[in-house]
Structures are given as structure tokens and as C-alpha cells.
Amino acid sequence: MLPQIPSPMKSPHLSGSRGVALLHDPLFNKGTAFTDAERDALGLRGLLPPRVATQDQQLERVLGNFRRKENALEKYIYLISLQERNESLFYRLVMEHLDEMMPIIYTPTVGLACQKYGHIFRRPRGLYITKNDKGRVKAILQNWPHDDVRIIVVTDGERILGLGDLGANGMGIPVGKLSLYTACSGIPPAQCLPIMLDVGTNNSSLLADPLYLGITEPRLRGPAYDELVEELVQSVQEIFPRACLQFEDFGNANAFRLLHRYRDEVCTFNDDIQGTAGVTLAGLLSAERLTGIPLKQQRILFLGAGEAGIGIGDLIVEALKLQGVPEADARRQCWFVDSKGLVVKSRTDLVEHKLRFAHDHAPLGSLLEAVHALKPTALIGVSGMPQTFTEEVVRAMAAAQARPIIFALSNPTSKAECTAEQCYTWTDGRGIFASGSPFAPVTLNGVTHVPGQGNNSYIFPGVGLGVIATEAAHVTDEMFYVAARKLADLATPEDLALGRIFPDLQRIREVSLEIATAVAEVAFRRNLTRLPRPDDLRAHLRGMMFDPKYPDYV
């Protein structure tokens, strides 16, 4: 059998906490739910109000308090404060009200929280490693209080969502991503480590802000940057040898390069490149059931040729190759428009990661021209440029296709290429829409359309669980392909009837378990793990998932 990921919620004695210290330990604190026997045994008598509450009663209280907050940022602050004092209650709240909580703890509100991070800072969370810490990264990792870390999310804050360089304020992203690992796939919170690699910022407003908490110097570049990243990667292998290292929200200049550098050396992936690719591919595969057009016959046009767009293109190519399409033909099914126009071979200004999708075609200067010329079946926005899917563009898509696929994936909501209402209105309700951030249902001509959210949280938590449960040596493209295929298969006929090409988000734990099982099967089939395969892999993985309900301590 595979070794279990130990639960952090077995006994407070494991942490040596009791009395006031126990009430300040978010992993073990139960607040007013400590029983009379526990209060006597753990030195809590008199430190709490006398009436013992159930977790259900606590949940009612915190949900009411959450809903009374006046705006999304205040709700974010409230949830983070709850997480800092009682992890189990926080995750119970998030898991049972995921539709309501996810837009707060992650996109779109987390973007605003990162912009305001220095101003709303309450309590440190995670590890900060700066460009001045070269030579002592290992010692910093050893300061972390939990020694069995299994998943690490690290950012250098250069490309936070579609908001750009937010420097050390970007810590909100690893914190939020790891919250979703626990809520969506049950990885215990003590196994999660957020890291901010603070190498400075080129954001002049942050440099001038007296409340900014990061290094007030320009960004580190070149060999010194690479040496710091290398020290971090190698120190992780030594201190947390069973951890998967996820790169998050790095700028294009480093994201592709670092993924290429480390993906075959350590257990690592980049969610912006590979996770976004997985959920987008799943959307395309699911949309086949509405369009009747198989992936082999799709022509896909991207607005944006950065890490998300190219990552999606690469995974589509891998999926097509697995379906028997030659690689060159598969690449010609993916076309890109960047800030200079259509990506074609005759251009001399293309960076390396765009070259493999540069095709023979006359230069075109705009997205609208590309839509008219190529007549794509799917239009995917990963540009970070709001309202670039104009009415003319969307209507041109609808004129060429009976069921045009339109994915406006840029985050947060303010950066979306178009809204769900615009898509449905301009396509007369025929558009198949998905977005990166949530949009409300749209009623048009008496028909209600429920837009799908192409949220990476459908993919990365399950992939992470499958990888760390098997202690896989590497995270492969095949793992993201099987994750996408599984996610598409889990969209029900009822989902599709509403126009939603992804499963209901409330099913995310089930979805993550199925994806984790598929990913683990790849690890065993490709000999990426030295662990023995259990007889019932799905049941084994289910047994590893964190349960936020309080255990009895005595």
C-alpha cells in the first residue's frame, strides 16, 4: 500500500500545544467546540466561554458574519483571518459554500487583495525568500514548522493574474492556490507551503508606497536570478524531498525557461502554462458534445501568445498526436494573434516560444482580420486585454460557425476579453462560452445560459493529489491530458443542456478525486514512482483526503 499523507488533525499533543498556545494554533484550534473533557485535559478551562458549541453552530456564525461584510475585499480579509485562527472551520466553510467562497479566496478578489496586500496585512503566512538570501535558502526552509511538506507554490510576483508586476504583494496567490489544494482535493493544510521569491519589483507605485512590504529595489535579472532559483530548487529537494514544486505567476521571460530547465529534473510544473492548458483542453473536448466537431477538425485562434496561450497550444498538440494527428498538422490547427498581429513565419520579431506556432500565411494586423481569414471554430482569449472580443469579432465568429466556441479566460473579471452576456447576445445564444473568472447566468429570449468557468482549480488540485500521493518523479504532459479528458467526461448532459461545459463546481472534490486517480495511473504505468500500486487506487486516494470536521482529542 502507498504510505498515507498524515492528517494534521490527529491530536494537539503532536504540536506540543496546550492552553493559550493551542487556541493560537490554527491547525488544532477548535475554539468554543472544545469539549469539557478536552478543556480539562488541554489546559483550556476558563480560557473559553463556558458553553460548548458544535462545529455546525460555529459554521452558522461565521457564514452569517461573512455575508454581513460590505464588499469583496472585506470578505477576503475575514476569510483569511478565520484561516489564521481555525483551519478546520475555514475549510468546512469553503467546502460547503464553494460557489460563494471561491471568488473571494481566489480570482477575482485575490487580485484586488494582492494589489492591497501591504495595506491589509494582518499576519505573515508562508516563507519569504529574498534576493539578499543567497547562500541561506536552505536555512530559511528549515525555519518552516512542518517537516512533511508535499506541495509548494512559489511565485516571484512578476505576472500576478492579468495585473502585472506586484512584487512581494503576490504572496496572496500562493496562499490562495494552496487553500484550493486543500478545499478541492483534500491535501492537508500542514502539507502545503507558500513561498514568495522576492527579487524586487519594477512597479513604481509599489516602490513609492511606504506600506509596501517587499524589497524596494528593481527586479533581479540574469545569472544572479538563476542562481537564486537554482538554490531554491535544490534546497527543496534536500529539505522537502517528497514535495512537488509549482511555479506560479512568473513573467513570460522566466516561466517557459524555468519549466524547461527543471521539468525533467525534479517534480515540478507551471500552473499558468500547464494547468490553464488542461482546463482549456477539457473545455474544448467537452464542447465537442455540443458542436459535433471533433478536436481533429477544430481550428483554434488565440488572442495572446504568452505562457497561457502557448501552453494551451502545446497541450492541444499533444492531445492531437495521441489521436493520431502528425505533429506538424496538429500545430497548424492552432493560430495566434499577439500585439503585433497574426503570428506568421515571415515575422522577424518572434521570441522563441512563439516560433513553433508561426505558420505560412500573409501578415494580418488585427484579430478581426484573422477571424475573417481563418474562420476558426474556437476563439480563446488569454491576452489580459479587456473587451478585445468586440461585437464585430464575436459576430464574425457566429457568422462562420453554428456553435462558435468563445473562451474569455483572462483574469480577473476586469480583464476578460468579453462578458458572458456579450457573447450570448452577439451570437444569438449560440455561443459556447467559458471564462477565467465567474459570470452570472444570462437569460436571453427566455432561455437561461449558465456560463462555464475555465478555472484552473478544476485541474491543478487533482493533478497535485495524484502526483504527491504516488511521489511521482516528474509531472508530465500526459498527466495533464488525462486530467483534461477526465474533466470533460465529468460534465453531465444536464450541465451541457445549460450551456455549461464543466461540471458543477460543488462537485469539485469528486472531480479532483477522479483526476487524481487518472494521474496516479499514469505515474504507475510510466514507472514514474517506486511505490507499489494499491488494489483500489481510487479508494486509497479518497482515504487520504483531508476532512475538516473536528476529531476528538481526548
Report what the structure shows.
This protein has 554 residues and is α/β, with parallel strands linked by helices. The chain has two domains: 213 residues, Rossmann fold, CATH 3.40.50.10380; 181 residues, 3-Layer(aba) Sandwich (Rossmann fold). Helices cover 44% and strands 10% of the residues. The chain has a seven-stranded mixed beta sheet with strand order 8-7-6-9-10-11-14, with helices on both faces. It has a five-stranded parallel beta sheet with strand order 1-3-2-4-5, sandwiched between helices. Helix 4 packs across helix 7 and helix 24 packs across helix 25. The longest helix has 21 residues. The radius of gyration is 23 Å and the shape is globular.
Features:
single chain; 554 residues; alpha/beta; Rossmann fold; seven-stranded mixed beta sheet; five-stranded parallel beta sheet; 14 strands; 44% helix; globular
Query: What is the helical fraction, as a range of percent?
Result: 40-55%
What is the average per-residue confidence, as pLDDT, rounded to a whole number?
95
Q: Distance N terminus to C terminus?
A: 29 Å
Strand content: 5-15%
With helices defined by DSSP (H or I, 4 residues minimum), what is the helix count?
A: 25
In the CATH hierarchy, what is the class of the largest domain? Alpha Beta
Strand order of the largest sheet: 8-7-6-9-10-11-14
| Annotation, overall tally of beta strands | 14
The helix/strand class is alpha/beta
Shape: globular
